[in-house]
């Protein structure tokens, strides 16, 4: 039985996340799920307490409506304090399999994504996080898994399948082969045989890693493209019309928390599709 924790700030963005979670619960034939909202406690205690009660009533009404639609009533958790620690503790308390969040508020500056609540939740979560940016009009029909050649990448894809987010028969696996540094090599000096050899090696590594993990895909679903990762992924999303992107986040040595790399951060800030971010196993 799948266990979902859905963070809501009561905005339309969060409504998309709740709708997607409801679809997942319905698809799984039921499950254990919780709607969580955190009230800022930087206000008089009586005001915070009344605000908590008001939000509880609102979410209880929504939970009842969801129970009638889905057949499974979500729990409601409303607390006050710091958002991220409360949500992480709630996830641990219910042994959640997945944290579902809405998208960040759109801004004109991409770099403002860094430091948003969504970014901090993804960065600090030890659970897979599904960032929902689009209305959940239907189940995901096609997914794109953007994988590097690390064990964590294959783990991310396996997690997506176990969570019911990815169908191996309707999935494209993409590896972006980093280009030669621009400005250092001209077209005439690039040995394209080297590029072809690297692409073949990467494809073989992908095939072997996926097969070893029990994730058998048709060869036609595996692609290696040369170029900057962000550009290659965006182009592949456009061509495949995938509604879900699966990526792995990585732990950096010496840091106690997971950190988003520049590519993952840029993808989350720029892309309008739903994105599943999977942290390293364990």
Automatic annotation (TrEMBL):
UniProt key word ATP-binding: yes
InterPro entries the UniProt entry points to: Rossmann-like_a/b/a_fold (IPR014729), Universal_stress_UspA (IPR006015), UspA (IPR006016)
Record-annotated UspA domain positions: 3-132, 140-279
Record's keyword terms, sorted: ATP-binding, Nucleotide-binding
Nucleotide-binding is among the record's keywords: yes
Stated family: Belongs to the universal stress protein A family.
The protein's name: Universal stress protein
Source organism of the structure: Pseudomonas aestuarii
């Amino acid at each position: 039985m799948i266990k979902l924790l859905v963070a809501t700030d009561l905005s339309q963005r969060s409504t998309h996340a709740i709708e997607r979670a409801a679809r997942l619960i319905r698809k799984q034939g039921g499950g254990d799920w919780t709607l969580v909202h955190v009230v800022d406690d930087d206000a008089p205690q009586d005001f915070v307490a009344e605000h908590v009660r008001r939000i509880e009533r609102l979410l209880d009404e929504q939970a009842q409506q969801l129970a009638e639609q889905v057949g499974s009533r979500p729990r409601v958790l409303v607390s006050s304090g710091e958002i991220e620690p409360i949500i992480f503790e709630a996830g641990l308390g219910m042994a959640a399999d997945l944290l579902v969040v809405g998208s960040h508020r759109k801004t004109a500056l991409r770099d403002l994504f860094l430091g948003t609540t969504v970014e901090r939740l993804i960065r600090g979560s030890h659970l897979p996080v599904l960032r929902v940016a689009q209305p959940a009009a239907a189940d995901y029909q096609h997914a794109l898994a953007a994988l590097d050649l690390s064990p964590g990448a294959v783990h991310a894809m396996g997690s997506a399948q176990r969570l019911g987010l990815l169908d191996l028969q309707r999935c494209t696996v993409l590896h972006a082969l980093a280009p030669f540094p621009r400005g250092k090599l001209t077209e005439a000096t690039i040995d394209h045989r080297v590029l072809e050899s690297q692409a073949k090696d990467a494809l073989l590594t992908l095939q072997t890693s996926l097969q070893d993990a029990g994730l058998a895909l048709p060869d036609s679903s595996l692609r290696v493209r040369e170029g900057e990762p962000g550009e290659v992924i965006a182009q592949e999303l456009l061509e495949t019309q995938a509604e879900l992107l699966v990526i792995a986040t990585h732990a950096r040595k010496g840091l106690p928390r997971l950190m988003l790399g520049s590519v993952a951060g840029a993808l989350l800030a720029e892309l309008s599709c739903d994105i599943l971010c999977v942290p390293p196993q364990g």
